[in-house]
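Recap quiz, item 2
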Amino acid sequence: MTSSEQAELIVFIILAPLAVVTALGMVLTRNAVYSALLLVVNFFCLAGFYVLLEAQFVAAVQVIVYAGAIMVLFLFVLMLLGIGNEVVVKEQMRGQRPAAVLLALGLLVAIVGALAAGVFDAEPASLAAANEGGNVEAIGRILFTRYTFAFETAGILLVVAAVGALVLGKRQP
Amino acid sequence: MTGTVWDIFILLVKVVGVFAALMVTVLLTIWLERRIVAFMQTRVGPNRVGPFGVLQTLADGIKLFFKEDVRPSNADKLLYGVAPVIMMIPAFLAFSVIPFGFAFGSERAQLADLNVGLLFVLAMGSLQVYGIVLAGWASGSNYPLLGAVRSSAQMISYEIAQGLSLVGVFMTAGTLSAAGIVAAQQGDPLLGFIPRWYVIFQFPLFLVFLLSGIAETNRAPFDLPEAESELVGGYHTEYSGVKFALFFLAEYLNIVTVSAVATTAFLGGPDGPAPDFLPWLWPILWFAAKVFFFIFIFIWLRATLPRLRFDRLMDFGWKVLIPVALAWVAVTAVVLVVDVNLPRPVLLGAIGVLLALLLLSFLLPSSDKEKADRTAPGGSTP
């Protein structure tokens, strides 16, 4: 094991339990603000994993977009609504619980099945080849050549969502 | 293994050195601000502790550390204590990717040259808002909460303009790395005297970055999150003693960091004429001089301009800065791709000055007609 692999392992051993604990805490805590903050810590763990996988750009974007913008808006809304400490736990949708259990079981079966079928046994493509010419450059190149259509579609989707939200917000009663 | 231990030692020396330099810069900045503002208001300013009162900030810091730590009974115990720390950490971390010189022998004068470089600074900037939001919420009081709500809206809005203003720099430099951007700005001067700094080729983005930087650091005239005439003290109303000192420190650290990023991205970082005598020292001096130039602008603006109204502030961010930045990014893209006879920097510079004039025209006093409309509500038309 080289020293860089060792360092990678140490960071993973620190991050992985933290990610699991914060994820559980986010679901289990009753306080909405604490729940949101635990999710933010979880995002940081995720960013750490991206760095370990040598995807620095995705890690930075993860922090800027999810931790820096989306979760701040969540907190903003929580504060504006004045949700203090205890959130009233009430089932909003009927049949949500059985559906959730069913879907979770389905995901478990899919993951176990994939593991059993040996999907992850294949030799991964070389990281050096994927990151050729720099991580940011590689992502830019692939985003604007092979995946242009998906990229532009996602952009249009976001614009439509923003315009829709504006229209809903501005509608006169 | 000795190599590894030596590397770690060097890294530690660099980290402690940068930390100490940042703290000293903050102390100097606070003192400079008080002296310069005093000078502009024909007052004396602090002049008792140390020569010219330089050590006044140190004395104030010691005072704050020994004050009683008061916590409001409504406050959220954990988050009330954590918020100032959350505010501080990103402020320090952001500086780790800034190159403050060229080299000491074989060592680079930079803590880490990340591939994503300035993107990391933006990420750290986007985390700052947590400190303010949590401080406001955890205080369990209305004025801090209002300050925090204002602040999160302001910071998220201006983050977009700030990010966009760096896009043009990334495009021209062809890299996100801070050291790469500095390297891209070196080279023979244009026409013999104009340096190849991006403040010339990316002038509109320079203005956008500076303005959004002031808004991001909550400085006057964009200091609405702590507007004392409306909100007592904004998000840190309930804080005192050492926790308030941390907020204060973070605010000035942010000023230093924004100045350093502006220096790196637009003023060529440590670039400047260097004599052969002590070649490692000159770049650091140039860097420090440029950073203090920006710090002076921050102080100057604070002493000069009144605070904006909140809706004006949001309008300015969304309707002026973001469109200008977007338009300039498009112009840069076209200029970089199109084949022209003129040298590209000259073309970019010329268009830049035009756009900058357009941007500045928003700051001019409004025309007489608009004034008349504003003074006569209801508009009594003849």
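Residues 1-83 of chain A form a domain with the Four Helix Bundle (Hemerythrin (Met), subunit A) fold (CATH 1.20.120.1200).
Chain A touches chain B through 23 residues (CB under 8 Å).
End of item.
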